[in-house]
Every structure is written in structure tokens, then in C-alpha cells.
Amino acid sequence: MKTFHKGEKKVLNAWAFYDWANSVYALVISSSIFPLFYGALFRLDNKTSASFFGIDTPSESIISYITAIGFLIIAIISPLLSGVADFLGNKKFFLKLFCFIGSLSCMMLYFFNLENLYTGLFFYLLALIGFWGSLVFYNSYLPDIAFPEQQDAVSAKGYSLGYLGSVILLLINLAMIMKGEWFGIDSPMQAMKISFVLVGLWWLGFSQISYRKLPNFRNSNKINSQAFLSGFKELKNIFNQLKNFPVLKGYLGAFFVYSMAVQTVMIIAAYFGEKEVQWESDDQRQTGLIVSILLIQLIAVIGAVLTSKLSKRIGNLNALILINATWIFICVCAYFVVKPVSFYIVAAMVGLVMGGIQSLSRSTYSKLLPQSTKDTTSFFSFYDVTEKIGIVIGMFIYGVIAQVTGKMQNAILFLIVFFAVGIFLLIKTAKKQANS
User: Fold this and answer.
1) Per-residue DSSP letters for 2-50?
2) For 140-159, what is each residue's pLDDT tens digit?
3) Is 56 helix (H, G, I), strand (E, B) or coil?
């Protein structure tokens, strides 16, 4: 095994480059092309709902519930696997495994249709599990390879590379959809299906560059039954340890609440734009949604960098308080969105704070970890489980409100409560930090 030196530039760059590889899933599948494709499937078939376990359910609620199920699975299996990774020291193996599952499932979305809706949703579910499952092990690398003073900048660099790389592929997909004849493609729907295959190939291919430099901490331990239970024991142990770290405990509580809203907004934004915005034509809908997502991604690059600089000036927790307040304003604006122009404006605002809150949340947690700890995978598993359970709750509430009221705006407006509670808890945590 090659000698590894903490803080080494080549390793930090390799870690950040995995964001370049996997962020195409977040942009193309989660945020833009797949939501557009999913909405078009129902619209072209003159449907707004489908039978979901015997109940006629709106299309947006179906995808919300499946997404919630996916995150619930991740919340359950990530402690199990992180315990094994800590015991064997093979987090790179699991990073590769989930990457393979996710990228292959993205390619299988090529066959998604309403006639085989459950099969398509199954591969959508597996792609989600692959992406978020890999992040458990990817994020846990950060404190292992970077010193505390490097972590904000490296985390921001990862997100920036992810936004830039995914935008490149999205532009290619946009050209395929709008100018299919250039590529010998018959229809926009066919172009979208091909884009799912390209996502899988991009993710699987570029991740190999990261694997070459990321260290493998494998040890001589042999797998046994205790290894499978150790992850849950570690979570319990970490939960018990939190009382000794009141600032970390307070931050996790705040993160749990506001991440419910952040991730829910980011996941449903394109579905909202596809269905609720009054587009003049299908062509305008296709172009407008992709342009708005591009706008979000490009501005998010700036937002991640500006947030890193802001945190240096006013501190991580104060920066997060300010960003959460901005999210409240955005949700209020989104409630009144009807025309494409207003949707573009809200999308630009989302981009400014989206990258910042993700990057800063991750690096804030990393910096607040006790410096003496060596089981970083379990600590980050706890962080990820906290986030995933929050998303399960957020997506389920969103799906129910949208289904009961028949209006997606009502669900978005409800998310303001989560941001407000998050701000309150961040303020309490900041006071604890000042007094510690």
C-alpha cells in the first residue's frame, strides 16, 4: 500500500473529484431530466395519477413516497455497513460498491415507462440508494485526509467540481433533447432516456480517477457477526457521547430539522416546475426547466465559494443562520410562483444558497467532531442517518400535503416551519459554543 500523508494535495484533489463523478446523478436524475421525463410520461398519456399499491395517487406524491422509502432504506443500512467498514477498514470497497449499484441503475432507467411503473420505480430507488449510500463513505473520508483548517475549502471545492462537471453533461443532454437530429435521435423522450445511460457511464468512469488516489485503510480483521452489529452499537455509543459535546449535539439537532426542508425543496423543485408553472408549450417547458436547473448549478458554484468566505468572517454557525433565513424568504416566494420568469428568479435564489448550505453543513460537522476520534465513518454515519431520517419525514409530509390539498405550493409553504425551527436551534448552539 502506498504511503499516505494527511493533508496531501493529490489525495484531497482526488477526494474532491468524486463530486465531479457522482454529481451528474444529483443534477440529471434527481433535479432535471428525470423529473421532466417523469412528468412527460403522465402528461403524454393524459394522466395525472396512477395506481400506487391499489390507491389512485398523484404522480408527484408517488415519487415523493418512493424517495422517502429510499432514504429510509439508506438510514437503516448505512449504520450496518459503516460498522463493517470501520471494523475492516475498507470504506473504499463500499464507496465502489454503491457507485456501481447507482450508476448501473441509472442506465436501467432507459427502460422506465408507465406500463412497467413498478420496475422503473425500483431502478429509480436503487439509483437513489447507490448515490446516497456512497456519500456515507465519501463524506467520512474528509476528516481522515484533511486537517481541520483545510476542510471548509476542500468541501467547497468538491461541491464546485460537482456543479461544474454535472453542468457539462447537462449541456450535452440539453443539446440531445433540443437538437436530436444532430445525434440521430428521434424524439426528446428518447434523448432523455439516453441521458440516463450517459449519467451511469459518467459516474462509473470518472470515479475511477478518485479511487486511484484515495487511501485504503484496510486492516487484518476478519469479518464476523459482531461486525454487522457494530455499526448500530457505534451509533448508540455516539448518541450517548453527544451529551459530552453539547455544541455538536445542538448542531446535529438543528441540522436534522433544517435539512428536512433543504433536501425536500431540492428534490421536488423540478417536479414543481414541471407541473405547477404555466408554460406556454411543451418545448418551453423542456427548455425552461433545464435552463433553470443550469442557472441553479452555475450560481451554486459561486454560492459555495462565497459561503466558505462568509463562514471565515462570521463563523460557521452564524453563516448557517443567515442562509436558513434566506431559505425562508425563498419558500415564501415559491408559494406565489406561476409564470416562468418568477420561477427563474426563485431558481437563481435557490442556487445561491443551495451549494453553500450543503458544503458548510458538512464541513461544520467535521470541524465540530472531537479531535481525538478515529471512528470517523461511524460519526459521519450518524450525521447521514440524521439527514436521511429528516428527508424521509420531509418527503412524506410533502407527499401527503400535496395529495390531500391538491396543491404543491401548500407543501412548500409548510417547509418554512422547519427552517424557522432550524434557525432557533442554531442560535442556541451558537450561544453554547460562545460559552464553552
Assistant:
1) ----TT-HHHHHHHHHHHHHHHHIIIIIIISHHHHHHHHHHHHTT-SEE
2) 788 788 887 787 788 878 87
3) strand
